[in-house]
């Protein structure tokens, strides 16, 4: 009788402790939320730019100050797998004419080293442009 109780308690203890080690085996995707901010685009925003130029570079802001409409907040939240989420806030302030007067970034953005596939320039080499499509032999 005592063996069954001891065996049951051991099985229960092992099964409960096994659940805590399985947590990081399950795959979790990276979840970006808000405005995707790149360091290259944020660096292009300068004082003297218009509202349209800022919106062309960074897109529509996540939050516009409801009281004055002159302050835009671009918020980027990145959570990678089991790491703690990182939040970046880029604030752009305009004057009454819609010209950028001040920009602030709460912490530096990570640099992206890989070139985007859409920006790759494809070059033709050789005399492939001289041949016609019907002369395949």
Automatic annotation (TrEMBL):
User: Is 4Fe-4S one of the keywords UniProt gives this record?
Assistant: no
A single GO BP annotation from the record?
Gram-negative-bacterium-type cell outer membrane assembly
Matches recorded under PROSITE patterns: PROKAR_LIPOPROTEIN (PS51257)
Range of residues in the leader sequence? 1-20
Keywords, A to Z, come to: Cell outer membrane, Lipoprotein, Membrane, Palmitate, Signal
Q: What's one GO-annotated cellular component? A: Bam protein complex
Membrane topology, from the record: Lipid-anchor
Q: Which InterPro entries match?
A: BamE, BamE-like, BamE_dom
> Which Gene Ontology MF annotations are present?
protein-macromolecule adaptor activity
Compartmental location: Cell outer membrane
Q: Which Gene3D superfamilies does the entry link to?
A: 3.30.1450.10
Alphabetized Pfam families for the sequence? BamE
Q: Where is the Outer membrane protein assembly factor BamE domain?
A: 34-102
The family line of this record is: Belongs to the BamE family.
**Subunit description:** Part of the Bam complex.
Task: Tell me the PANTHER family matching this sequence.
Answer: OUTER MEMBRANE PROTEIN ASSEMBLY FACTOR BAME
Q: What does this protein do?
A: Part of the outer membrane protein assembly complex, which is involved in assembly and insertion of beta-barrel proteins into the outer membrane.
State the name under which the record lists this protein.
Answer: Outer membrane protein assembly factor BamE
Question: What species is this protein from?
Answer: Rodentibacter trehalosifermentans
């Amino acid at each position: 009788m005592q063996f069954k109780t001891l065996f049951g308690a051991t099985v229960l203890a092992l099964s409960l402790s096994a659940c805590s080690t399985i947590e990081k085996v399950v795959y979790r995707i990276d979840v970006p939320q808000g405005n995707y901010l790149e360091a290259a685009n944020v660096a292009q925003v300068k004082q003297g730019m218009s509202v349209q130029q800022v919106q062309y570079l960074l897109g529509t802001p996540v939050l516009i100050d409801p009281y004055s409409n002159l302050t835009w907040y671009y918020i980027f939240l990145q959570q990678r797998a089991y790491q703690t989420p990182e939040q970046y806030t880029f604030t752009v302030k305009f004057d009454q004419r819609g010209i950028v007067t001040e920009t602030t970034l709460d912490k530096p953005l990570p640099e992206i080293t890989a070139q985007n596939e859409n920006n790759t320039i494809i070059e033709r080499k050789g005399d492939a442009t001289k041949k016609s499509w019907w002369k395949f032999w």
